[in-house]
Amino acid sequence: MTQKITIIKGDGIGPEIMDATIKILDQMDLDFEYDFKDAGLEALEKHGDLLPQDTLDAIKANKICLKGPLTTPVGKGFSSINVALRRHFNLFANVRPVVTFEGTKSMYENIDILTIRENTEGAYLSEGQTINADRTIAESKIVVTREASENIVRYAFEIAKKAGRKKVTAVHKANIMKTTSGLFLEVAQEMAKEYPEIEFNTLIVDNTCMQLVMNPSQFDVIVTTNLFGDIISDLCAGLVGGLGMAPGANIGSDVAMFEAVHGSAPDIAGMKIANPTALILAAAMMIEHLGYVAEANRIRLAIRKTLLDKDRLTGDLGGSAYTADFTDAVISRL
Ligand code: NAI
Ligand code: MG
What we know:
It is a single chain. By secondary structure, the protein is of the alpha/beta class. It has helices at 14-25, 41-47, 53-62, 81-88, 146-162, 180-192, 205-214, 226-239, 277-289, 293-306, 323-332, and strands spanning 3-8, 32-37, 64-67, 93-99, 112-118, 130-131, 138-139, 167-172, 199-204, 221-224, 247-251, 256-260. The protein has a ten-stranded mixed beta sheet with strand order 2-1-3-12-11-4-5-10-8-9, with helices on both faces. A hairpin with a 6-residue loop joins β6 (130-131) and β7 (138-139). The mean pLDDT is 95. Bound molecules: 1,4-dihydronicotinamide adenine dinucleotide (NAI) and magnesium ion. Magnesium ion binds next to α8.
């Protein structure tokens, strides 16, 4: 049966890296139909709405979405479209793997870390962010619920079990944020008891950052709340050659949305030099999610081989190749 996929090309470098990614998916002989929809600045210009209802309807109907980065205009009263999408479809788990690819600027060998970030609450609420009239006091609300914490911790342990991973680390700041981070930690400790076969430890977030830089190989699966997960996953991307290398999945019980961890990179948009790897790897996660494990691994292997070729590396990896050069090289190695 034809699988319909909602495609949002996105802003900035989005269309460039999405075109590269679709070119690769088209090589895979999968029965996909692309349903192109707008969101972000592009949608604001065309339809007067950052997140048109038509786009939401398509995601809901197709259940699978591949999405380029979206620019949220700052200081114009818009709340983040990414956060809105995640909350609208209750995409509770943000799954962000990083692995070392030989040939990139990675400082370490053999990194294989999976960050599982709570994606719907924590410090990322659009409501409850206030500032007084003379702009001297700003406040925001952090909400952690037992239900969302249980969902994300269970997801982390289940994925660890399925993937044969050995260890789960719950990252928190319960020593200071006693109620919010404290509740998350309490839930993680309780649920770890249900998975005695998987090693479990807890680590305070600031120490985690230091440990990730000093000795990343001690980490396997990291599970944490929204803000810490956002920061830690960018740090992890830095361990394997930068944001151009890091894919992510937003998983809900009904809908799943796949994207790169990075943003729209306005500084290089339109120059055709963006590294499409993160979005291509996100597409690999998507087809794996749809059951095409061998095909996903074929894409990953072709990327692995291409990254060994210095002449094909994009600027962020120290090379001077164009997006299309890299993409064609991946296709030739599929
Ligand atoms: P960014 O990730 O767009 O860029 C940070 C730096 O990394 C820039 O120097 C950029 O050129 C470089 N970079 C990122 N991806 C790259 C790639 N594929 N190839 C080569 N170089 C790459 O982060 P920034 O500048 O903080 O955000 C820009 C915009 O993106 C903002 O409007 C932000 O809201 C949005 N954003 C959207 C996200 C999403 O849609 N999921 C995630 C993060 C940011
Ligand atoms: Mg981020």
